[in-house]
Amino acid sequence: MTKTDVSGLSLLGQKTDLPAGPEEAVLERVPSGHQGTNFVVRFTAPEFTSLCPMTGQPDFAHIVIDYVPDEWLVESKSLKLFLHSFRNHGAFHEDCSIDIAKRLVDLLAPKWLRIGAYWYPRGGIPIDVFWQTGAPPEGVWLPDQGVQPYRGRG
Amino acid sequence: MTKTDVSGLSLLGQKTDLPAGPEEAVLERVPSGHQGTNFVVRFTAPEFTSLCPMTGQPDFAHIVIDYVPDEWLVESKSLKLFLHSFRNHGAFHEDCSIDIAKRLVDLLAPKWLRIGAYWYPRGGIPIDVFWQTGAPPEGVWLPDQGVQPYRGRG
Amino acid sequence: MTKTDVSGLSLLGQKTDLPAGPEEAVLERVPSGHQGTNFVVRFTAPEFTSLCPMTGQPDFAHIVIDYVPDEWLVESKSLKLFLHSFRNHGAFHEDCSIDIAKRLVDLLAPKWLRIGAYWYPRGGIPIDVFWQTGAPPEGVWLPDQGVQPYRGRG
Amino acid sequence: MTKTDVSGLSLLGQKTDLPAGPEEAVLERVPSGHQGTNFVVRFTAPEFTSLCPMTGQPDFAHIVIDYVPDEWLVESKSLKLFLHSFRNHGAFHEDCSIDIAKRLVDLLAPKWLRIGAYWYPRGGIPIDVFWQTGAPPEGVWLPDQGVQPYRGRG
Amino acid sequence: MTKTDVSGLSLLGQKTDLPAGPEEAVLERVPSGHQGTNFVVRFTAPEFTSLCPMTGQPDFAHIVIDYVPDEWLVESKSLKLFLHSFRNHGAFHEDCSIDIAKRLVDLLAPKWLRIGAYWYPRGGIPIDVFWQTGAPPEGVWLPDQGVQPYRGRG
Amino acid sequence: MTKTDVSGLSLLGQKTDLPAGPEEAVLERVPSGHQGTNFVVRFTAPEFTSLCPMTGQPDFAHIVIDYVPDEWLVESKSLKLFLHSFRNHGAFHEDCSIDIAKRLVDLLAPKWLRIGAYWYPRGGIPIDVFWQTGAPPEGVWLPDQGVQPYRGRG
Amino acid sequence: MTKTDVSGLSLLGQKTDLPAGPEEAVLERVPSGHQGTNFVVRFTAPEFTSLCPMTGQPDFAHIVIDYVPDEWLVESKSLKLFLHSFRNHGAFHEDCSIDIAKRLVDLLAPKWLRIGAYWYPRGGIPIDVFWQTGAPPEGVWLPDQGVQPYRGRG
Amino acid sequence: MTKTDVSGLSLLGQKTDLPAGPEEAVLERVPSGHQGTNFVVRFTAPEFTSLCPMTGQPDFAHIVIDYVPDEWLVESKSLKLFLHSFRNHGAFHEDCSIDIAKRLVDLLAPKWLRIGAYWYPRGGIPIDVFWQTGAPPEGVWLPDQGVQPYRGRG
Amino acid sequence: MTKTDVSGLSLLGQKTDLPAGPEEAVLERVPSGHQGTNFVVRFTAPEFTSLCPMTGQPDFAHIVIDYVPDEWLVESKSLKLFLHSFRNHGAFHEDCSIDIAKRLVDLLAPKWLRIGAYWYPRGGIPIDVFWQTGAPPEGVWLPDQGVQPYRGRG
Amino acid sequence: MTKTDVSGLSLLGQKTDLPAGPEEAVLERVPSGHQGTNFVVRFTAPEFTSLCPMTGQPDFAHIVIDYVPDEWLVESKSLKLFLHSFRNHGAFHEDCSIDIAKRLVDLLAPKWLRIGAYWYPRGGIPIDVFWQTGAPPEGVWLPDQGVQPYRGRG
Ligand SMILES: [Ca+2]
Ligand SMILES: [Ca+2]
Ligand SMILES: [Ca+2]
Ligand SMILES: [Ca+2]
Ligand SMILES: [Ca+2]
Ligand SMILES: [Ca+2]
Ligand SMILES: [Ca+2]
Ligand SMILES: [Ca+2]
Ligand SMILES: [Ca+2]
Ligand SMILES: [Ca+2]
Ligand SMILES: [Ca+2]
Ligand SMILES: [Ca+2]
Ligand SMILES: [Ca+2]
Ligand SMILES: [Ca+2]
Ligand SMILES: [Ca+2]
Ligand SMILES: [Ca+2]
């Protein structure tokens, strides 16, 4: 049975403060225990919030991230802190969604990654943003994210 | 088998224009064929729209009306036209919902009536309005309206 | 284990024609095997259709009937034929729904009966009709019918 | 922590044959470990099948049983075998449903019991049967069974 | 048709900053247009967030508020800002939920009010908090909030 | 982190009137902050309404738009106003749906765009319209719109 | 904005009788306003009924039709009347489903068409029929019909 | 309109006994009325039951069969009897599922066939079996079976 | 705004081992910040597991606990550890469910408490256990737990 | 009808202890009865639990395994015991999920296998792991696993 090498981690297992913003947040990684195997890891973050850069009012989103690791896995506690660090950050929906994904791509150099960002409605019309780094590697199994469409009332 | 007396109707079976506003709309009624029987009639109107009186922007609602007729039934085509007549009318959610119900109460003098108005969200927080004329008559069967709660995304 | 007395039935187990109308349909009954026991029998008929008396166009409904037998049970094949006999009959929604229930009340003299008729939308606004003969007998267990509300699209 | 007295059981933990019919099936009971406490036990049996006494064809039902024990609990393996024993037994829906409940009432003399039997449709119209021994004891908590209504297709 | 008196409002129709905390937030009210009528107003706020007072990490909740107005209605934009003002406030789930409700009770002196706060899971076990000021006024119609239970995965 | 260039916008952050019709509505655009990246933006508009050109009666639709930006993003407030501008415009379902999409194609010259228009039923039979400008660009991730099918009642 | 040419229609906007059978029903068509554009039109007809040719008993189905127009659109009122004309027509499920589709193919000569017919259960086992004229044109977007599978009870 | 040739059938329209086992069951077929047309026929059988060959206890399954006919259609009443004939037959899940499909392949020599067998859980872990005769014919439309995954409780 | 008194807690904010069994687990409590207020606190624990006392095999349950505090609130981390402490404990479903509830009653002396335990199926028939300490206090608002019924497959 | 060769099995039909860990668990296999047929077998295990290697606290997952047998089938009781053997084993989510799959690949040398592991949330963000051994064999039918996405609350 596989043992994960956690020797390089600094955040896990200790109390940590909320980072002041995404630039301050430290994303950590561990070596994948199955580097020759093309599997998908999915994170579902229903608790994302940032600020509107025009009005300073809060925005909310449900975010799902899928990736196929190459050498690295993202450590999940540091990912949580990174996502929470947008709490007082102002950003447009499209930019914010793509920026999160690109930060992970920089950290992990994954074989493939995608993000689905499902924003709560403003003005009655929600925005969703979908991005992937390209077609998934051949032979990878990738279920759809299955988030229900917005439907107003009734 | 019961025959409905439709001799007093003017709108049914002919082409009709959209009334200019709720004051102009003509609500019609027919005698109930079962006046001694306490049954409930439910109308579900998922296509309600009015205007915000402050901004002039459209508002939308899913509306459900339940009533126990006494002598009169509302004619359903005139009800549809009455509801559509709010299309260019400005009104607050709470007022608009109660006003619709009271107009029907005036027309029908029903044994009992209630309205559920489920408004689409503005600013992320939808408003629902629920009103009934009092406790339902004894022995009446009244299923709940069962409209799903708003849940944002995810 | 209880044996039902079916000696009075004429329709069961033989080919039968569709009755020409509700007046022609023969509703049959059998003695209840548990006459001292207050149980509920529910029939769900998602296949009801009649004609609009004004336009001759078809109407459709999903109908649910609950009753507490006294001495008699309705025989289910004759009930099916009775319901199908409305196929070429013209009737208003409210009248048709109550008439079905009253016909069963006449046949069975049940301790209690209710009908829920959930009509398909015409003009965007469906009508539901709910009737019961009065409050259910004390100590009877009666689940709600749980039919989902109409919600248009989306 | 409570220990159940299983000294009187004969079926549990050994291989058992399917009983030839409900009369042959042996229902077993154990003393309740909380005899002064009015709690509800619910069994959900989605695998019930019997035969039609007129045609010999199989019938199917989803059955839910709720009871408030007095001195005895029904042993669940014997309950399963009892229910499976209807596999080659011919019975009408209403009779079969009530008979199951009464057999349990005889065995357990519970403070209260109810059965919901949700039969698969024959001729397009399913039958449900609901029975309870009377109003539930005061202060007992009893969620509804929540089985979805039949809805045909679409 | 009813006209709402909005003469006492200061926030509506102008750009407003996010209040620094719940003590700083200004809740506003308007006179009810139907003061003799016992109707229910429901607000659904799926975008609530506060901080854990022990760890400083974000907490999230879906909040539903129902009330029966007496003389006053809460103005919905000020309610939104009040709820958003908890963004950087530390509070326990139980306290935070009850405090929101009590603040509204102080402002509105409603005939009746309740709050349902459905908190996102921490440690795998979510907490819900349900409070009402007492039994609802007689004859008021109050649908349940219908929020789905938490179910983990699968 | 990306900053969106909003210098060319005229509508955002100020009170705006409802345009008299789609020809009068001003759709605005901003440069995409990620022009080399093939991501999808989805707008869900459950509040669409227009008029029937034959009868003048209101029609309603739930509309979902997906596109892959090239140089431009549509500004969402102007999109909302554009959609609301159909409120007093008469159009057939098929024409109206395709026209909305083509207007966006003209404004944005996107790499790809599709529209799903889910119209509320008239005469019992709803119409859906689905169009895309062609096959999506290679390697783009595009979830299906997942709008539930219409199912009448029951 | 596109204007539909309705000059060739005879049924729209006037009262029409129910056709005696599918051979008598008149299907009408209008020129497509977007003949160079490969879009899909979907009709959902939850109100289909015909007769069993062996027993004369009613059958019911939920029917969904998708097509890509070439030069012609089917006029929706005539489609409704055509579907209703099967009301007194005897046909097997497989034949009836394919015949409807082929009649539309003859009228419209569409680029592509498919039909899904979801028949209500008889004998406990519903039949679905799925047919398309071939693979859809390249680059057309075609959501699945998403009709829920039959699941009996429970 | 197509007429099905039923001259070769022996079971339809007469009372039939339950076959003693799958070897005794007679599957019948009729010529397809659309032999040049590649359509799919789906049967959904939520009422399948057999016996465990090791313990003699009942097993249950929900079974869905899709096929593309060549010259023959299976007659649905004989299919129902064939499936019911497993009632007293002992078989492993995998074997039973594939054997049903192969029996139909032998009878019909279809262009293509698949079976999905969704078995009720034993030991907490249900088994599903999925088989098709190969890739479906080109240009055939084949919706997925859409049976919900098992999820235990909660 | 209310401050919770946490001075008596020993587990919160430090690493803790899994208790060896329910007798070893330490349940902690804090004073309620709203002792004069009758609110409900709900815990949902979808991750419960214990052992079968007869076979030593694992059992699983989804558990929901509602209570109305008097002087004390249960501290949620200690509750989680208490529930996890059943991991290697053997107990019957009925006993285990009631024992959990009674342990909380002993700790908290609440005004009222109930437990719903929804056990995963064994032998195809799941058991649910429902208990409350008596009727809830007057004027308390208590939503039902809304856990979906078990339904096997299909 | 096929007979499965069970001569090599040691666990089936006898009482067995829970293995101490995955290394101790004995996975058994039987020869496939349809070795030339490419069918899929799916196991759904909603009752998986292991320990966190860092904290010793329990983790939970819902696991679905699909495979196409070559010469061997896994015996389901031994699979259940193997999965339960992780109960006191510490492992990271990604490692644990892939290790289960690889153990089955070693035992069965299947034509193809995949695993979907849906872990309960820790810190608000659940992890899913998806792996398959490569693209499925041509012509195999493989429904998606259809597990609903996590959605927090509301
Ligand atoms: Ca999918
Ligand atoms: Ca209800
Ligand atoms: Ca209920
Ligand atoms: Ca809607
Ligand atoms: Ca309930
Ligand atoms: Ca309710
Ligand atoms: Ca999909
Ligand atoms: Ca239906
Ligand atoms: Ca799909
Ligand atoms: Ca069904
Ligand atoms: Ca699909
Ligand atoms: Ca679960
Ligand atoms: Ca409820
Ligand atoms: Ca089932
Ligand atoms: Ca699928
Ligand atoms: Ca949510």
Notes on the structure:
Chains A, B, C, D, E, F, G, H, I, J: Catalyzes the NADPH-dependent reduction of 7-cyano-7-deazaguanine (preQ0) to 7-aminomethyl-7-deazaguanine (preQ1). Ten copies of one chain form a homodecamer. Chain A has a domain at 40-132: GTP cyclohydrolase I, C-terminal domain/NADPH-dependent 7-cyano-7-deazaguanine reductase, N-terminal domain (GTP Cyclohydrolase I, domain 2), CATH 3.30.1130.10. In chain A, 16% of the residues lie in helices and 28% in strands. Chain A contains two helices and six strands; from the N terminus they run E-E-E-E-H-H-E-E. Chain A has helices spanning 76-84, 93-108; strands at 29-31, 40-51, 58-68, 72-74, 112-119, 127-132. In chain A, the strands form two sheets. A four-stranded antiparallel beta sheet of chain A has the order 2-3-5-6, with helices on one face. The first copy, chain A, has a two-stranded antiparallel sheet with strand order 1-4. In chain A, strand 5 and strand 6 (127-132) form a beta hairpin. The longest helix of chain A has 16 residues, at 93-108. Chain A starts with 28 loop residues before the first strand and ends in a 22-residue tail after the last strand. Chain A binds chain F through residues 22-23, 53-55, 89, 91-92, 94-99, 114, 116, 121-132, 134-135, 144-152, and chain F through 1-4, 6, 12-13, 32-34, 37-47, 62, 64, 73, 76-77, 79-80, 83, 138-147. Residues 150-151 of chain D line the site of one calcium ion.
